[in-house]
């Protein structure tokens, strides 16, 4: 079944030249390059190890994503209204960047509440109880505390078992992928002992009001249940192409809430990382069956467009046809429909693209192979692949995937600017007395049977964050 969404439109991307050989990583710019480690060829010890990890995963019935769900704040901003307020042609945002709406967090929403909401939804969708979770990793680059991880708040809010391993991962937008790949290895290694992993990517993307980055903000979380015998996407375990380089394309000093970014340089770093990670993946992966679709990290849709064009060049394919192999409209566009209505959610962006793809056409994709590209500034990237499982479409159809986008409040520009002003003091806002009094009695737990949600109440006199469930 194909679902129709508000569309995205894209201008053509400028062409670049690349070469890809067995013993070189393709590089597009004059970035400083560290001496490259020798690449793996298919007969190398690296490949043999990858095969043995894959065999361990196969013996378990495969490992991958068993369920996936997302959450967004209750409010959003129309990009055409932001364009008007900033004196910019609306097409620059809707077509030039490929984003239609941005989710904006309110005073009671933060990366913890968004994570809890997405996790609550994925547990309900999967039919699993919190008792079955043995590992909970939260990927975020907008942590709420320098020490206490969001995973600990989540552990309390979801009532996860005390025997569960919980922690937070950070590497800009790559943090969620680090968690996912860690969970896959944990299962393939046998450490899961039949339990599942809960991986949650949660972030609020903020740039300075009025800056070039402003139209590429957003907020939201994606939660995934990772297990043996996955029902949605079985991942190709042990086979992924990694790329890393020390660059200053995007950073957020400890004292700042808004990120700093060298925007055009970050685009270049992303594309270089794609070329490097994809080149490594091609050396390891079975190329006999082409990827039917590819999901890219989506800070904004146009960058996925550029990424796909680059990949087609590396493969010697043409991406401009309206249909058929290589076509952007066929291979990528369905994955950009949900992101176009949410904006950048940093760690969760790639997985919102995956959910968008499954929501759009899971039935057509059953048994087909899809590629996944994750990028985190700084930088780290990974290209890997998976196969959509038979029966995935029925599971997706049974979920109300797009429910978080319904009944959202459309912010006016003054409301949005006031929210951003209030953000500056959110981490010092005193919690209401009633909620502060609840501290010490242990966190309240979200009941899977109810629709109640976690909300951020503020900070108590000991500077602890207080949440309630309502
Ligand atoms: C992405 C970013 C660099 C764009 O900055 P900008 O200088 O304001 O925007 P640009 O002038 O490059 O315009 C963006 C696109 O809109 C196009 N555009 C501009 N005006 C347009 C119009 N009226 N109609 C249609 N398209 C238009 C431009 O041609 C450009 O497309 P191109 O990249 O294919 O050339 C900026 O938003 C940013 O820094 N974002 C945060 C960083 C980020 O997300 N990085 C991603 C890597 S992780």
How would you describe this protein?
The chain is an alpha/beta fold. It is built from 14 helices and 16 strands. It has one domain (62-469): 3-Layer(aba) Sandwich (Peroxisomal Thiolase, Chain A, domain 1). It has helices at 45-59, 79-86, 90-97, 111-126, 150-158, 175-188, 263-284, 301-315, 328-331, 337-340, 349-365, 392-398, 413-426, 433-436, and strands at 63-71, 75-78, 101-104, 133-139, 165-169, 196-205, 218-228, 233-244, 250-251, 260-261, 293-296, 369-376, 380-388, 409-410, 454-459, 465-469. Strands 5-4-6-7-1-8-13-12-11 form a nine-stranded mixed sheet, with helices on both faces. Coenzyme A binds at residues 11, 13, 89, 91-92, 95-97, 212-213, 215-216, 261, 263-264, 266-267, 270, 299-300, 302-303, 377.
Structural Rg: 21 Å
CATH class: Alpha Beta
Strand content: 15-25%
Globular, elongated, flat, extended or rod-shaped: what is the shape? globular
* Number of beta-strand segments: 16
Q: What is the straight-line distance between the termini?
A: 36 Å
Element order: H for helix, E for strand: HEEHHEHEHEHEEEEEHEHHHHEEHEHHEE
Number of helices: 14
- Pick out the low-confidence regions: 4-41
**What compounds are bound to the protein?**
coenzyme A
The CATH topology name reads: Peroxisomal Thiolase, Chain A, domain 1
CATH fourth-tier homologous superfamily: Thiolase/Chalcone synthase
How does the major sheet shape up? 9 strands, mixed
Task: Return the average pLDDT rounded to an integer.
Answer: 89
Biggest sheet strand line-up? 5-4-6-7-1-8-13-12-11
